[in-house]
Amino acid sequence: MKIITSHERTDMDALASMYGAWLLFPDHRPVLPVKLNRNLRAYLALYADALPFVDRATLPKAHVTQLLLVDTHTVAPFRGMGARTAVHIIDHHTGQPAPEGATVEGDAVGATSTLLVERIRERGATVSTEGATLLLMGIYEDTGSLSYLTTTSRDAQAAAWLLEQGADLSVANEFLHNPLTPAQREVLARLSAASEFHTIQGRSICIAAVALDIYVDELSSLIHQLTAMVDPDGCFLLAQYEHDVQIIARSTTDAIDVSAILRHFGGGGHSKAAAALALGTDLADVRQALLTILAQEVVAPVPVLSIMSTNVHTVDPAMSARDAAALMRRYGHEGFPVVDGDRLVGVLTRSDIDRALHHRLGEMTVRSLLHSGPLYVRPGDPVEEVERVMIEHNLGQVPVVENGHFVGIVTRTDVIKLRAPGANHAARPEVRPLLDAALPANLRALLVEARDVANAMGFSLYIVGGFVRDLLLGVPTLDLDLDLVVEGDAIRLAERLAQVLGTRARSHSRFGTAKVILDPATHPDAPPSLDFVTARTEFYERPTELPQVERSSIKQDLYRRDFTINTMAICLDRSRYGQLLDFYGGTRDLETRRIRVLHNLSFIEDPTRILRAARFEQRLGFEIEERTEELIDDALPLLEHVSGERLRNELFLILEEEAPGRVLERLRSLGVLAYLAPGLAFPRDLEALFARLRGRFRSLAAAPQPQEAGASLRLCYLAVLTYAMDQRAMAEFAERLRLSQRDTRFLREVALLRDRLPELRAPAMLPSHIYRLLEPFSREARFVLSVLTDSPEVEERLDLYERTLSQVRPRVDGHYLRRLGVAPGPIYGEILARLRDAILDGQVRTPEEEDALARSLAEGAHRTAN
């Protein structure tokens, strides 16, 4: 026998889930639990005949082979169950302990009914009007008609589909909105009178405890009423009946995970709604235990310090309204803190400036326009205090003041992003161990020393960029040349750190960058230098040009970067070591594996980001986000205005990737190459060709090479792409990308060698002829030809040259010819070449034959000279 059932005190989601499971598994019997909520009993009294549910008492005596549990992880004792009963669970309460041997499926949606509706839709099953109504009631009850914080878009989509199937809202309203019974009203009054309030980690907690003389149904409906009356961050209803205490909890904040809290009592549920039954205990003990657990589990509020921006733009109170308006346009700000020295004077908003300019008061000073008063927060204040100030004073940004000194701001966007799902401004617990595991001990100690120096100077130090991205992706980090950003002065920090380490520093004041040179003997497992850059912001005067750079905050520094996955930082400060900063959704995009720009003008300001987008996409196996791809298409013509040096640098970075062919193919599909270099040729199966080239190049690099190092692998890749260009196209390409003379010479060399292919394909050819054709070219050029040619004869001759012909040297040399009386001059080369040809072609096989031929050629040279 196969059955479907759910938990006792069954609610509408559990009943609907049993029905949904029966639609998917019609060979199972949906068995009603013994205890049903009041609205379920009323509903079944009218609609039981149209539904497949059976009472437990009517089941035949038989072994239960399969038990399907819905909306719960708890298996109630069931006649016919045994050790061989297979238990499968479908539940939206994730993270709950399951019975040993049970299989579990589910997801964090608002209702289990949603999960089953999704499967019913996928299967194309039909649902009756009564069935659609029941499933809709299941979703509505557990999501508060799609209003609870646990509601997801999937719940709304499932509800919409059920309405399309004919779900009856009048029936749903009748059975989901029952008035309170007299007993429930009495208990609610007692709960209200008994409510006590606690502040834990800055969060308001309501605990309402009552002892019941009679059992009262559906206490969960009372907690919603109680929460609406007192509006706490978390509410806990404790109701003792006989020797058990029922606990029902609700939360309005991620800081209070009621599911984790009630797990201590053997319960569970969602982070925002949970329940438990404490057996064999009393009210006082449960209340005290709950307070102890709350002190451990409630998360402290996010402090202003964790989301504030420092080194922000400010204006002087004596500045004119016209100049302040120009700054707002330049930086795109909606306002500025007004600061005199380091003291906050007030806040200037764009609306104030706009009104002043409208009335032609551009010369009016900012002091006459600003908002003043208690418009600030402190770094240690909770973010909720920022919200209060914003609402009370209608401000889009709130200054942060510490000990009377202006230190930063928090914007409306900061607060919104903190509240958004997946926001991550607090320390992720896994980042610190990942960081410590990735860094060699010597380098980690060096960074801690740099951090201590920075903190002593009042600066903050961060690791940013690709290292952070790869750390979170779990990609092995081979390159430990870290990008270190200083909220402060990178040059002063580097100079001070160099003094502490007894080494030297180099700096570039124009860019605010510096490096501390490291001695490998003193600092093994560390890069040659520690590179520091001052946190900065960028302003583009015109599209495609390099930006102007100004000192700024870490938040602004991250905002100037190319893609969200590169905008994360790890703080190294003593008080925040290992804290991950993710202001722009980088972790979310890592999880969804997408490449996304930060704003719509990103490619307009710097079109080279188009090439980087394809490079990161192919390297990481990600996908360029749809909107980002649209922005790429809009910005393509601007590539024509980017300098050749910048395009060359980006192209060379692509050619240094592990699989550059995939990147180039992606650029071609995006339409980029038409603007970069229209003449580039793409042989069929480019990446396969490149892979063959890589393998042969590594063998080539491993072979002895007495002469000066030849072309790099990336240049060999480029030679493949320019192989089909004529001399004019080659010259234009080299000029467009500002290639060096050496690189251009190599590309032309490969093209010239290509022109010798007809001769190399000849049916019969002496070894000496092969030698003369190939010898003028570098082995890298010959190597590129060997990869590109589709002629077996050419491949054989190239291979013969490398293995044998190129090693042949006459024993006779210039000294020998001089002893024979041959006057020095071009004749030496001619004689030695004829000797080499004779050896190659097998006409000379022994030293004696070589000597004889040399003497004969020398005598001929004498006769010609005389």
Structure description:
This protein is α/β, with parallel strands linked by helices and 866 residues long. The protein starts with a strand and ends with a helix. Helix 1 packs across helix 4, helix 4 (129-143) runs antiparallel to helix 5 (153-164) and helix 22 packs across helix 25 (660-670). The chain is extended, with a radius of gyration of 38 Å. The protein contains 37 helices and 27 strands. The longest helix has 19 residues, at 847-865.
Briefly summarize what is shown.
This protein is of the alpha/beta class. Helices cover 45% and strands 15% of the residues.
* CA gyration radius, whole angstroms: 38 Å
Residue fraction in strands: 15-25%
Helix and strand content put the structural class at alpha/beta
How widely separated are the two ends? Answer: 117 Å
How many DSSP helices? 37
Number of strands: 27
Helix coverage percent: 40-55%
Mean pLDDT, to the nearest integer, reads: 86
Uncertain parts: 424-429
* Sheet of most strands: 7 strands, mixed
Blueprint (SSEs and pairs):
Layout: E1 2-5, H1 12-24, E2 29-32, H2 38-47, E3 54-55, E4 66-70, E5 86-91, E6 103-106, H3 112-123, H4 129-143, H5 153-164, H6 169-176, H7 182-194, E7 196-200, E8 203-212, H8 220-230, E9 234-241, E10 244-251, H9 258-262, E11 268-269, E12 273-278, H10 283-297, H11 321-331, E13 335-340, E14 343-349, H12 350-358, H13 383-393, E15 397-402, E16 405-411, H14 412-419, H15 431-438, H16 441-456, E17 460-464, H17 466-473, E18 483-487, H18 490-501, E19 505-508, E20 513-517, E21 529-534, E22 536-539, E23 548-551, H19 554-559, E24 569-571, E25 579-581, H20 586-592, E26 594-595, H21 602-605, H22 609-620, E27 623-624, H23 626-635, H24 644-655, H25 660-670, H26 673-676, H27 686-702, H28 713-722, H29 727-736, H30 741-754, H31 757-760, H32 767-774, H33 779-788, H34 792-803, H35 814-819, H36 826-840, H37 847-865
Helix pairs in contact: 1-3, 1-4, 3-4, 3-5, 4-5, 4-6, 7-8, 11-12, 22-25, 25-27, 27-33, 28-30, 28-33, 29-30, 30-33, 32-36, 33-34, 36-37
